[in-house]
């Protein structure tokens, strides 16, 4: 049986190619909002961090009704670090709309998401977005076609329909030379090209959970597509867990998606995307079946994490002063709760009860978790990110990424020199016709840690880099570490202008006057390789002697404000980032200066 009154689609693309803005226009033009309602930009990006950073982190469901057909739309993240969201969401849909920027063309994440969609045999509609900005639509279509052929698409998939659009201006067209008036051409193409869901409506219930939400009133909510049968509010069902066990449950409440809202309903059938409440221990990848026909569905395989990081209970002198949740019990519970909904993340306990090893897809993936926990009131410390190695056929292998850097022509030499020193191999170099060059490299993941800030410095802020995992290759060898040491506070106290003035001549400072510091806290970056202990709390002693110019005001250079990602990139293996709801500090693992010197001497003797 085919449900011709429903279409289930996902919007997939590289980051910043306009997915959320396009979905926004579809909602506005299909009457989801009142005519007098003030609609914010990117209404689907509902999280605070999403709106602040301008990125999508979590996949979200919505729907529009067009020509009597309900189109369920899932807006997905564009960053490679959140690729796990895209992978599990694709099992809920019957086709995808692949957005490609008319100016940038195909990017690393475009290849990644298209590969996943083609691998699951999903129908694809290509939408060349941001056509109002210019670019060459024909060249972009050629790039997309080459990508389809490279990824081994079949004849039916290669014969894709192309729509041209401006998500910001709210129109779509089939002819790039003639601007449209609304988004209807895109919706018409979706109805004609994306297949309607097929299945047996009269057989036993079968639905796999692809997402988990939480409501403070009804508790845990599972979201998934019904692949067979019908589901009713209040009916008895069986949950097939991923470990092979089953649990009999009752469906307390049933919801479907109408616009931006979850609307309660009594019954839903094959093809519907539903939200189910009333099942406490429901997790992603588990199947809800009819009690008389228990047949679990396989869940899509999620790519493995590539980075790991230690989360440690805060033991600095300032521990417990700013956070609400500070103990190992609190941190452990929060991390394992995250794993339940974040399918591409893993957590392992270590020999120490005060530290946990967290595995993620990349620096951004882990830093978003750190920032979220920080805003929830947690206080803890994290170590430097490390890549996860694999042994393949007896050979030590490491994750390799496809790196794309768009840079003005004047800075190409500096970028190629730095990436080459980090074991990067140039694969392609193309001028963009606008005074810039696109450089494509293959580079180990570990060599990208700390490079983004360096690249921005080398290109005066004009460079733009993106990267995505391409696979594992044999270990490429050692790379040079950060060639500058840290400026470390000598004693506990409050930083003074006089103490900082003496330090700024030899370093770049991270703090200003009047900041509480402790021994072992990092307050700046040294201009030389070795660490520099400095007494930033030093005060000027008053005397009876006066001389010309002695009382001139001391002028401090504005300190560098480090973001969380910059802190994670900056630290070495013997340093930690201390994270609290109010502060982000850098520190040495060993705070005592004498003990650090003894450890260094011992390491030199052993080597």
The gross shape turns out to be: globular
CATH topology name of the largest domain: Rossmann fold
Q: What is the strand content?
A: 25-35%
Q: Give the number of domains.
A: 5
User: What ranges have pLDDT less than 50 throughout 5 or more consecutive residues?
Assistant: none
The helicity comes to 10-25%
Q: How would a crystallographer describe the biggest sheet?
A: 11 strands, mixed
What is the typical, i.e. mean, pLDDT?
85
Tell me the structural class: alpha+beta
What's the structural blueprint in terms of helices and strands?
Layout (H helix, E strand, L loop, with lengths): L5 E8 L5 H11 L18 H6 L6 E7 L2 E7 L7 H7 L5 E7 L6 H12 L3 E7 L7 H14 L4 H4 L2 E6 L4 E3 L10 H10 L12 E10 L3 E10 L1 E3 L3 E5 L5 E5 L2 E6 L2 E5 L1 E3 L3 E5 L9 E3 L17 E7 L14 H14 L4 E4 L5 E6 L2 H13 L4 E3 L3 E2 L2 E3 L2 E14 L3 H10 L3 E7 L4 E9 L6 H8 L5 E11 L11 E4 L3 E2 L2 H8 L2 E3 L6 E2 L3 E6 L5 E3 L29 H7 L4 E5 L4 E5 L4 H14 L1
How would you sum up this structure in a few lines?
The chain is of the alpha+beta class and 607 residues long. The protein is 23% helix and 32% strand.
Description:
With 607 residues, this protein is an alpha+beta fold. The protein has 5 domains: 6-193, P-loop containing nucleotide triphosphate hydrolases (Rossmann fold); 206-289, Elongation Factor Tu (Ef-tu), domain 3 (Beta Barrel), CATH 2.40.30.10; 307-387, Alpha-Beta Plaits (2-Layer Sandwich), CATH 3.30.70; 400-474, Alpha-Beta Plaits, CATH 3.30.70; 486-571 and 583-606, bipa protein (OB fold (Dihydrolipoamide Acetyltransferase, E2P)). The radius of gyration is 27 Å and the shape is globular.
């Amino acid at each position: 049986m085919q449900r011709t009154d429903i279409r289930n689609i996902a919007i997939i693309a590289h980051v910043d190619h306009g997915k959320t803005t396009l979905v926004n226009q579809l909602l506005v033009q299909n009457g989801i909002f009142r005519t007098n309602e003030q609609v914010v930009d990117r209404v689907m990006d509902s999280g605070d961090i999403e709106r602040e950073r301008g990125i999508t982190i979590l996949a979200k469901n919505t729907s529009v009704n067009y020509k009597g057909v309900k189109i369920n739309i899932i807006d997905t993240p564009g960053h490679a670090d959140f690729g796990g969201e895209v992978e599990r969401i694709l099992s809920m849909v019957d086709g995808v709309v692949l957005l490609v920027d008319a100016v940038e063309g195909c990017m690393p994440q475009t290849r990644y998401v298209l590969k996943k969609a083609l691998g699951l045999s999903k129908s694809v509609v290509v939408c060349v977005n941001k056509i109002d900005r210019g670019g060459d639509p024909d060249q972009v279509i050629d790039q997309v076609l080459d990508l389809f052929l490279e990824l081994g698409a079949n004849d039916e998939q290669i014969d894709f329909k192309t729509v041209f659009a401006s998500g910001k201006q709210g129109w779509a067209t089939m002819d790039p030379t003639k601007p449209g008036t609304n988004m209807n051409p895109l919706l018409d193409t979706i109805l004609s090209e994306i297949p309607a869901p097929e299945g047996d409506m009269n057989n036993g219930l079968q639905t796999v959970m692809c997402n988990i939400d939480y409501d403070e009133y009804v508790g845990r909510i599972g979201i998934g597509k019904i692949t067979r049968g019908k589901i009713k509010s209040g009916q008895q069902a069986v949950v097939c867990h991923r470990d092979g066990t089953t649990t009999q449950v009752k469906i307390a409440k049933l919801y479907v998606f109408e616009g931006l809202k979850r609307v309660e309903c009594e019954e839903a059938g094959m093809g519907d995307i539903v939200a189910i409440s009333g099942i406490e221990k429901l997790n992603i990848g588990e199947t809800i079946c009819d009690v008389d026909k228990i047949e679990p569905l396989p869940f899509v395989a999620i790519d493995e994490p590539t980075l790991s990081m230690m989360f440690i209970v805060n033991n600095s002198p300032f521990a417990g002063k700013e956070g609400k949740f500070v103990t190992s019990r609190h941190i452990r519970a929060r991390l394992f709760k995250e794993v339940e909904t974040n399918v591409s993340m893993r957590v392992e306990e270590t020999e120490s009860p005060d530290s946990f090893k967290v595995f993620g897809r990349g620096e951004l993936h882990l830093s978003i978790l750190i920032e979220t926990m920080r805003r929830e009131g947690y206080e803890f410390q994290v170590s430097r990110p490390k890549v996860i190695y694999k042994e393949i056929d007896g050979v030590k292998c490491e994750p390799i990424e496809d790196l794309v850097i768009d840079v003005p022509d004047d800075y190409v030499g500096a970028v190629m020199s730095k990436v080459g020193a980090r074991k990067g191999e140039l694969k392609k170099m193309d001028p963009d016709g606008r005074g810039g060059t696109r450089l494509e490299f293959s580079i180990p993941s570990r060599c990208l840690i700390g490079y983004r800030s360096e690249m921005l410095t080398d290109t005066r802020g004009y460079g733009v880099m993106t990267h995505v995992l391409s696979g594992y290759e044999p270990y490429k060898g050692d790379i040079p570490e950060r060639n500058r040491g840290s400026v470390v506070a000598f004693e506990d106290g409050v930083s003074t202008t006089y103490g900082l003035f003496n330090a700024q001549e030899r370093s770049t400072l991270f703090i200003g006057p009047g900041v509480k510091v402790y021994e072992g806290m990092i307050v700046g970056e040294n201009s030389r390789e070795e660490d520099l202990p400095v007494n930033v709390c030093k005060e000027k002693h008053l005397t009876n002697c006066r001389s010309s110019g002695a009382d001139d005001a001391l002028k401090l250079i504005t300190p560098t404000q480090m973001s969380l990602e910059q802190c994670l990139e900056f630290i070495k293996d013997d340093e930690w980032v201390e994270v609290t709801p109010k502060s982000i500090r850098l520190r040495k693992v060993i705070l005592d200066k004498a003990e650090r010197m003894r450890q260094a001497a011992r390491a030199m003797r052993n080597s």
